């Protein structure tokens, strides 16, 4: 079994039946929306032509970034149902415009068709839409059929898609480690929302400046509960999204950084869990 697939399923196995039920309903709605959008794209020659031109104007780097944003959007959607303090939602990094959604859905369909039949796109570009229509109706993994009714089928389909995107993007290893090894700043919206609390008791030290946090002083409280002087933690979070004490990672506005963060959450959730099943 694919290791990415196993991580997803192990993480899902930690959810309660009500959580799973809510997740399945949400995933079904999400996949159906994407399915309807792709069907609209393929059924409209004008929209297909505009989307194809937009796709052709993008560099390889930007095409990869589109897929990464689409993956991040799906991971963010999934994280909302995990109900853990480490699954805080992503912010601007997960936003994707409708034009870009059309482009990434079309790009993924092209990739899947080429993998299925390398010669299919040797036809004239004017015939590509019909070629894609025929393939989409009968073969594609992206199609979400109304015949799929069981929770298992819905979750399997979603996890298969996410696993496929992860391998394509190649941002994370299956053990949860990132491949780029770069530091990213915490999202501004997250930093602004951090709570200010009053220090109670004495002897607490800010690990950044190594000075005592005096009783009665307002300090920053991170989601991991560690406390820091505001004047110390703000410059820190402008450089990196990790807690200086425990390396807890705040959401960022960096696409690859957010994929790594959410993947870490899934790996940790699934560690030691039993295999998923009904």
Q: Can you put this structure into words, describing what you see?
A:
- With 278 residues, this protein is mainly α.
- The C terminus is likely disordered.
- 54% of the residues lie in helices and 3% in strands.
- Helix 4 crosses helix 5.
- It has 2 domains: 189 residues, no CATH class; 52 residues, Zinc/RING finger domain, C3HC4 (zinc finger) (Herpes Virus-1), CATH 3.30.40.
- The chain is built from 10 helices and 3 strands, in the order ααααααααβββαα.
- The longest helix has 27 residues.
- Strand 2 and strand 3 form a beta hairpin.
- Strands 1-2-3 form a 3-stranded antiparallel β-sheet.
- The chain is elongated and about 75 Å long.
Break the fold down into its secondary structure elements and pairings:
Layout: H1 3-12, H2 17-43, H3 45-57, H4 60-79, H5 98-116, H6 128-138, H7 151-169, H8 188-192, E1 196-198, E2 218-221, E3 227-228, H9 230-239, H10 255-270
Antiparallel strand pairs: 1-2, 2-3
Structural domain tally: 2
Order of strands across the widest beta sheet?
Answer: 1-2-3
Shape field: elongated
Instruction: Report strand %.
Output: under 5%
Helix content: 40-55%
Order of helices and strands: HHHHHHHHEEEHH
- Report the average pLDDT across residues: 82
Question: What are the low-pLDDT stretches, counting only 5+ consecutive residues below 50?
Answer: 84-90, 274-278
Q: Tell me about the biggest sheet?
A: 3 strands, antiparallel
Structural class of the helix and strand makeup? mainly alpha
In whole angstroms, the N-to-C terminal distance is: 18 Å
The Rg value, from CA coordinates, equals 22 Å
The total beta strand count reads 3
Specify the number of helices: 10
